[in-house]
Amino acid sequence: MKADLEIKQVVSVLDMAKIEMLKNLFLQVLEQLNIYYGSGIFLAFTIVAAIYLTVSGKETRKKLIYPLLAVLLVILNPVVYYLAGEDFVYWRMFWLIPDALLMGLAATRFVSGFNSTLKKCVAYAVLTVMLIFFGTNIFTAGEFSERANAYGIWGSCKDVADTVLKDDPKPRCICPYTLTMFLREYNGDIETMYGRDIEGYITASNQKKKEVSHEIEADEPDYDFLLSVAVYYGYDHIITYDRSPIREETLTRFGYEYLDSTGGYTIYRSMNRE
Fold it and tell me: 195: pLDDT confidence band, cut at 50, 70 and 90?
């Protein structure tokens, strides 16, 4: 009797954990949708366009709306993420929602419903003004800036890359996340320990590398850990933030030395390179 009660309690706890996970996934879906669509105006435009296309033609429902509903049932469904073993909703899944296609097709069908050319022009103008008014000019919204150099990366990153390449034509580096992608973009001969997917959003990531990426971003990194990993895996350069330099005695103990400081970063190199 007591064993049955304990089993029921365990099952109850597991059920609550599942419910909590599904709830968190559902909230993530809403949060990512909110981030993806911003103010929500274009989400509203997309929904209105989908409804209009649904009621305006059987062929459109069959070829566009029904497949879209099937896609939405997958990418907006927390149960699907749960069954797939995922605890993170990836916002790029929303690229599967054909917003522009729905709005463009709905607008075209709406405008073509008028008989006179004047009415069509007025309807087209009104829809265009609505898109412009509620939209954002990407050229003035902070999305673009003047390039600091021909490579499209900021100046301090280029300085760091030039420094390690001058020291070694094929350097292997442990560096902060802010640098890892752009160093490779600047020169493919620079090998970094991890890339943009270190958190495993797309593919499973190496746990040790993930620990390194978190530690190097800390206010007070554990340099004994970082340097021991660097030695073990053969990374000859370590790049840190200027705010947290490595002590001389720690560097000496692991066979590294100071190389240079530039653009808010400090670069160290191994003294035991072949």
Answer: confident
Smallest CA-to-CA distance from 196 within 176, 211, 181 is with 181
Q: Is 2 exposed, middle or buried (0-12, 13-18, 19+ CB in 10 A)?
A: exposed
What's the pTM value of the predicted model, to 2 decimals?
Answer: 0.60
SS3 track for 174-217: ECCHHHHHHHHHHCCCCEECCCCCCCCCCCCCCHHHHHHHHHHC
The pLDDT assigned to 43 comes to 87
Q: Which two tokens stand for residue 137?
A: 């000019």
CA distance 260 to 274: 21
3-state secondary structure string, the chain?
CHHHHHHHHHHHHHHHHHHHHHHHHHHHHHHHHHHHHCCCHHHHHHHHHHHHHHHHCHHHHHHHHHHHHHHHHHHCCHHHHHHCCCCCCCHHHHHHCCHHHHHHHHHHHHHHCCCCHHHHHHHHHHHHHHHHHHCCCCCCCCCCCCCCCCCCCCHHHHHHHHHHHHHCCCCEEECCHHHHHHHHHHCCCCEECCCCCCCCCCCCCCHHHHHHHHHHCCCCCCHHHHHHHHHHHCCCEEEEECCCCCCHHHHHHHCEEEEEEECCEEEEEECCCC
Query: Band of the pLDDT at 30, cuts 50, 70, 90?
Result: confident
Using alpha carbons only, give the angle 152, 153, 159 rounded to the nearest 5 degrees.
130
Task: Give 96-137 pLDDT, tens digit per residue.
Answer: 999 989 999 999 999 998 989 999 999 999 998 888 888 776
